[in-house]
Design a protein that fits this description.
Layout lengths: L1 E5 L1 H10 L6 H10 L4 E5 L9 H10 L4 E5 L3 H10 L3 E4 L19 H13 L3 E6 L3 H9 L4 E5 L1 H4 L4 H20 L3 E5 L7 H4 L5 E6 L1 H10 L1 H12 L1
Parallel strand pairs: 1-2, 1-8, 2-3, 3-4, 4-5, 5-6, 6-7, 7-8
Helix pairs in contact: 2-3, 10-11
Bound molecules: pyridoxine-5'-phosphate.
């Protein structure tokens, strides 16, 4: 299982003052130096954290793998084609949300998703779809010809009892196995942290996890190198 670090929160902190620090591009380099195998950033339509300059520099600096999280809009699709990340992850996006709240509704938006997947494939960019662990969504993802799904682990991470957590874990396991039978690669993300990774890392089908908030929160106290190294250990 590979650790990909979502660096959006470094940019959120920078934007809190509207200045230059902390620089998410520097953060990406430190993450890679300390064992991250990919860097994830979300270029939102309102540019509330990562901006166009960050993405341009990240494309130049990231040596492992750049995963651009994005909504399916004409503007951001065009930027993806110009930037050529190794992977794009399509997510739903709402202006008022604090973070992505749910998976993409691939069933409802089948045509739009398939068109966007085709466009990315024409430029040799792999596509991941962020979906809830629901069979119909996984089937629709396979039909759209996406390469990978990222299973939304938010409900698992936010479970309020052990019973609910184990129920959600079971859903994730089944979804991961089902996606593999349909030929999809499997990633996972949202709300994963140093404590709950022990449940996720045992799921063989999951190749990559995308982790942001917990890692940045720990970095404030112990420093970014140690926060990344601790998460690499938790993932393995
Ligand atoms: N995966 C996706 C699709 C996301 O939108 C996010 C949040 O930006 C993450 C993973 C990382 O979630 P967290 O910050 O809770 O680790």
């Amino acid at each position: 299982m590979r650790l990909c670090v979502n660096i959006d929160h470094f940019a959120t902190l920078r934007e809190a003052r509207g200045g230059l620090e902390p620089d998410p591009v520097t953060a990406a380099q430190i993450c890679e130096l300390h064992g991250a195998e990919g860097i994830v950033c979300h270029l939102r339509e309102d540019r509330r954290h990562i901006n166009d300059r960050d993405l341009r520099l990240l494309r130049e600096m990231v040596k492992t793998k750049l995963d651009l999280e994005m909504a399916i809009t004409d503007e951001i699709l065009q930027i993806a084609v110009e930037t050529l990340p190794e992977l794009v992850t399509f997510v739903p996006e709402k202006r008022k949300e604090l973070t992505t709240e749910a998976g993409l509704d691939v069933v409802k938006e089948a045509e739009k998703v398939a068109g966007a997947v085709r466009m990315m494939h024409q430029h040799d960019i792999e596509v991941s779809l962020f979906v809830d662990p629901v069979d119909a969504q996984i089937e629709a993802a396979a039909e759209s010809e996406a390469d990978v799904i990222e299973i939304h682990t938010g409900e698992f991470a936010n479970a309020r009892s052990e019973e609910e957590m184990l129920e959600q874990l079971e859903r994730i396991k089944k979804a991961a196995a089902y996606a593999r039978t349909l030929g999809l690669g499997v990633n996972a993300g949202h709300g994963l942290n140093y404590a709950n990774m022990k449940y996720i890392r045992g799921i063989r089908e999951i190749e990559e996890v995308s982790i942001g908030h917990a890692l940045v929160a720990r970095a404030i106290f112990v420093g970014l190198p140690k926060a990344v190294e601790d998460m690499v250990a938790a993932v393995r």
